[in-house]
Amino acid sequence: MIETGFAKGTVVKRLNLLASIIRHAVSEWDIHMDNNASAKIVKRPEGADKKRNRRLVGKEYDLILEAMSKTEYPDDVLIVRFAIEQGTRRGEAMALRWCDVDMKRNLLSLQQTKNMRTAKVQGPEIRPLMPGAKSILLEKLAMRSSVPDPEAHVFYVGSEDSFSLRFGRQIKKFGVHDLTFHDLRHEATSRLAKLFPNPMDLKRITGHRDLKSLDRYYQPDLSDLADRAAKQTR
User: Fold this and answer.
1) Residues in domain Tyr recombinase (predicted)?
2) Could you read off the pLDDT of 118-149 as tens digits, one per residue?
3) How far apart are CA 189 and CA 203, in angstroms?
4) Is residue 31 located within the same domain as residue 118?
C-alpha cells in the first residue's frame, strides 16, 4: 500500500467516490472501462473499515456541554444537545432552517441529506421531530425577541470545518478524548433505539438509508441487554 499522508478513513472515502464516478460514467454515459478501473478492487488500508463504536461514558456528556458553553458561539452547546436528541448528522443540523420545522405536526423537512446525495430522492427528507429536540428548538425561540426569518438557519455555529475543529479542541480541554462530533450520532442512535425497538421505525428517525447502515451506528450497552433479558425471564 502506497503511503498517501491521509487518514485511512479519508482514503476509503475517496476510493468510494472514485467508484461512484466510474459506475455513473458506465451506466449513464455508456463509457466503456476495464474492470481494473474500479476503485473497489484497489487494496483498502488495513483497518480502515473497522466499525467505530465510541459512545459517551460516565460524565462525558456533561463535560461536553460545559466545554461547548464556553465558546464564542452560544449555539454550540445547543447543536450538541440537538444532535443527541434528534440523531442528525452535523451538516443536517447546521443546514436546518426555521421553515424546515413543523412544530404542530412534529416534523423536520431536511433539504440536504446524505441519502439525497447518494440516491435519487424527490423532495426533502421528512423525519419525525423528537420531543427532546423540539424542547431545544422552543428554548431557542424563547431566547429571541422577535419571530425568526423562516429562511434563517436555526443554529449559527460558523462553517462545518471550523465547528468540528472547535469541538475537538474544546472537549479535549475538559478531558474528553478520542471523540468526534459524528460519534454523537452513534450515541443518539443507541439512545433512540431504546424508545423505538422496531429498526424500521428507528431508521425513519435517524435517516439511515438501510438497516446495514443503521447497524453501524447502533451500539447498545451489552450489560443493559443482559439485564433486560434477566428481567424478562424472572
Assistant:
1) 51-232
2) 555 567 899 999 999 999 999 999 988 899 99
3) 9
4) no
DSSP state of 124: P
Q: In this structure, is residue 28 part of a structural domain?
A: yes
- Alpha carbon of 66 to those of 1, 59, 81, 94, 175: distances in Å? 42, 11, 11, 20, 11
Q: What is the value of pTM for the model shown?
A: 0.76
Q: CATH number for the domain including 215? A: 1.10.443.10
Q: How far apart are CA 138 and CA 150, in angstroms?
A: 15
Tell me the pairing of strands 107-110 and 125-128. antiparallel
As a whole number of angstroms, the distance between CA 112 and CA 91 comes to 8
Kindly provide the b/e burial profile for residues 38-51, where b requires at least 16 CB atoms within 10 angstroms of the residue's own CB: ebeeeebbeeeeee
Q: CB of 12 within 8 A of CB of 45?
A: yes
